[in-house]
Amino acid sequence: MATSGYDIVIVGAGSAGCVLANRLSEDPTRRVLLLEAGGSDRSIWVRIPLGVAKLLTNERFVWKADTEPQPQLNGNRLYWPSGRVLGGSSSVNGMVFARGHRAKYDQWRDGGCPGWGYDDVLPYFRKLEDCAFGDSAYRGRGGPIGVTELKPDAVTQAFLDACVEAGYPRAADYNGALSEGTAPLQVSSRNGIRSSAGLEYLAPARRRANLHVITNAVAERVLFEGRRACGVHYRVGDAVHEVRATREVLLCAGALRSPQLLELSGVGDGERLAALGLPVVQHLRGVGENLQDHLMPRMTFECRPHVTVNDLLSDRWFFARSLARYFVHRDGLFATTTLTGLSYVRTREGLACPDVRIQSALVAAASRYSTSRATGIDPHSGFQIGGYFLYPESRGRLHAQSPDARVQPKIEANYLESAADRDAMVRLMKTIRRVASQPALQRVIVRETRPGLEVASDEALLDYARATAQTCWHPAGTCRMGSGPDAVVDPALRVHGTEGLRVVDASVMPMLVSSNTNIPTIMIAEKAAELIARG
């Protein structure tokens, strides 16, 4: 069934798609359609930060996906959920507000992406945020995404103090002039409520008559006339539809789904497409390649302060007090996703910038996705310190494995394939131990529960990481921006060799910027909106 045409069709109402829908519909003469595979974000679990545990395995809110068995992780498959709801992953993520290191944006610029250096993108970072603290030369006021610096509890304060004792100084603002140091976590929230792209960008824009949003609409392929994108074929339930785009199609489906959708549309490696029986519109061998992600091991500790998620499950009065505090003051444990503090650290001399990040979380469990005792929450007060190598050298790939868009792509993450990544993993875990051994944390720690102090050698620490480490939800790079035969989009985010087609999401990042990907993705979309409006 054909639907009426629009100037612009956006695929994916995630962190980038919501920004584009808002900014591009500001012009009342521009007709914009936003397609989202998921449904409404109206849920208390989306709004309350601690509700994230209710979202990560619920197909109402996420695409479920698993990697292929990982050779360097004992053959483990890692669970890679991603947002499938208005707001996308910004509605289900850990809410960490982090921009990344300025030097990495300069590497984007110098690596063939003019216009994407730190000084180029800083105005868009400032535009997207509403931050009441920090230097106004670096921080924005009055933007859509709220920024809150969490108030440290007893365990988090001990973690921050221990980092300083270990030689990792406090940072006034790790999103300011200096992108490093130790600090309470900054999160995307306003008055204790998750500040998602769906709530802050899309909701106000939906009042406009020239913006149309269709939910539960699974995009199956981009339509082409020659090499010009002219629309999208999508499905709502069993009904199939086609919509025309007179100006542009914008893919904002994320680092997993955007490259898959390009391949299903005939844009990708020609041999790979032919093997799936797909016609080739444009041969681009880089589609789905250059996959990067952060891998996090976690060390867990039993502690004395009664302030953790573990205590919520064992003490109904603590649960009641914490919930009451949240509704009265909009802070406390329910205003977090358990993450509370971080430190950007150099683990060896001579580095130009920090190479690892460690972070505290007010939960101790056998599984990252635990929500009950039955699935691994420890039966005592507990917290964890996790971390990751900021600049992994290992590169993976993901590709469509079926012409059916509802079948997840084949994900080969290739974690720890590089010896440099394995060496950094060991240094990271030693850094966590160094921090945990400082007086400030020793006053609150009863014992290390995972992996346990008997796990001490480099080999034993790496074995623990291989057995237990999990994704940080930072996949990126699969539609790399740049020039050359392996690039997928140019610095204006236009897909090479096509017309009227752009990709705008984390997949265009040439490399990780040392950080979480949500805020950088919103920045990319803010800049893209201006590029698109200029034509």
What labels describe this entry?
535 residues, FAD/NAD(P)-binding domain, seven-stranded mixed beta sheet, six-stranded antiparallel beta sheet, alpha/beta, Cholesterol Oxidase, domain 2, 2 domains, 14 helices
Q: Can I get a quick summary?
A:
This protein is α/β, with parallel strands linked by helices. It has helices at 15-24, 44-47, 102-110, 118-128, 154-165, 197-205, 254-264, 270-275, 309-314, 316-329, 419-436, 439-442, 458-468, 518-534, and strands spanning 2-11, 32-35, 62-63, 82-83, 129-130, 145-149, 181-184, 186-190, 193-194, 211-214, 218-225, 228-236, 239-251, 267-268, 282-283, 295-296, 298-303, 339-345, 356-361, 382-389, 397-399, 410-412, 445-450, 470-471, 501-503. Strands 1, 2, 10, 11, 12, 13 and 25 form a seven-stranded mixed beta sheet that branches.
| Helix/strand structural class | alpha/beta
Q: How many separate structural domains?
A: 2
CATH class designation of the largest domain? Alpha Beta
CATH topology of the largest domain: FAD/NAD(P)-binding domain
Uncertain segments:
369-373
**E-strand count:** 25
Binned strand content: 15-25%
The pLDDT mean sits at 96
Judging by the overall fold, what is the CATH architecture of the largest domain? Answer: 3-Layer(bba) Sandwich
What general form does the structure show?
globular
Rg for CA atoms: 22 Å
Number of helices: 14
Q: What is the distance, rounded to the nearest whole angstrom, between the alpha carbons of the first and last residues?
A: 30 Å
Helix content: 25-40%
Describe the main β-sheet briefly.
7 strands, mixed
